[in-house]
Amino acid sequence: THVVTANCQACRFTDCVTVCPVACFHGDEERLYIDPDVCVDCSACIPACPVGAIKEEFDLSGDEEEWIQINAEKASDLPVIRSKQPPLPTADARRSELGLN
Ligand code: F3S
């Protein structure tokens, strides 16, 4: 499956949801999560995210593996996000901080 990792936090650009063919993204006020039971592993979302927050499960570093469970748990509780929303107010600053402008 694919997993939304730490960089989504403070950004929530939601570009990913516009390319997902199966609506596997769920969200709260801070960030998005992928439902691993719905994701078809197409990888379309990886280049769509401006801060590189989405990774394939097998590409995660040891530190990032916690996101597998977090995505699964949160996705099951939160509503599906299907359309682009305004990024968080901190998004552009976070993208600059990551050197991704
Ligand atoms: Fe988050 Fe990137 Fe999507 S910042 S909302 S994973 S486009």
Please give a structural write-up.
The protein has a two-stranded antiparallel sheet with strand order 1-4. A two-stranded antiparallel sheet has the order 2-3. It has helices spanning 15-19, 45-48, 66-77, 91-97, and strands spanning 2-4, 25-27, 32-34, 54-56. The chain has one domain (2-95): Alpha-Beta Plaits. The protein starts with a strand and ends with a helix. By secondary structure, the protein is of the alpha+beta class. The longest helix has 12 residues, at 66-77. It has 4 helices and 4 strands; from the N terminus they run βαββαβαα. The model has no long low-confidence stretch (mean pLDDT 97). The structure holds FE3-S4 cluster (F3S). FE3-S4 cluster (F3S) binds at residues 4, 8, 11-16, 31-32, 48-49, 51, 53-54.
